[in-house]
Each structure stands twice: as C-alpha cells, then as structure tokens.
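User: Please predict the structure of the protein below. I'd like the answer in structure-token form so I can feed it into my own downstream comparison script.

Assistant: Understood. Taking the following sequence of 127 residues as input:
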Amino acid sequence: MDETHQYGIVSVGKDHGHTFQITGMVEKPPKGTAPSNLIISGRYVLGPEIFEILEKGEKGAGGEIQLTDGMIKLQNSQAFHGVRFDGRTYDTGSKVGFLAANVAFALARPDIEPGFRAELKKIVGSL
C-alpha cells in the first residue's frame, strides 16, 4: 500500500478469486487514498473505442495522456475485469525497474543466460 501512489490502481467489485470485476480505476492516487493494492500492470485487452477517447489528447497525471484515464471513460459503457497475476512485476516506468526487468528477462532465457551472466560478473566484479 505504501507504493500505490506510483501506479494505476483498481477498485474491486465482485471477486471470483483469480478474476474480479473492476468497478473503478485511479491513476497514481495520492498516498493513503488508493482503493486497493491491486495495480494496473500494463496488460490489457481493449476494444477499438479506446482510441477515440485517447485521440482527444486530454492530459492527466504527470501532464501526460494516461491510458488509465481513457479506460475510466470507457468503463462508462463497458465492463472491465481483472486477473490476479501471481508472479514478479517490474516498474518499467523507473530507470532501475526497467533495467532490472531486462536483467531478469535475460537471465530467464537459456540461450542468453550463460553469456549474459558472464558479462554481469565482469561488470559487478569491477565495482
């Protein structure tokens, strides 16, 4: 909960365990105001109507066009559902998170891992 101000967060309606109804979304809520600790992780299945909303170019959090804001508007005419992800997520919106995601990806690939691990040892060993 202490990091929810950094992400898009959902409100949960009917809960089916692994899946749930999304009843609301907020992009980067102020600390202590998040409706849950469930983040919008950046994987969506959306209809083409979202593009009509985003084309309007309305700026939200951080002075940027926020997909979450478009999804909130789209929710007025369509139901949204979420899936709980049981795994590690990376904050690729931060420089360190982006780098960590790439390292984890490389280490998880059998065809890249040996050579990449050797390069990491060279880098870390020189610190």
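That's the full token string. The first strand starts at residue 8 and ends at 15.
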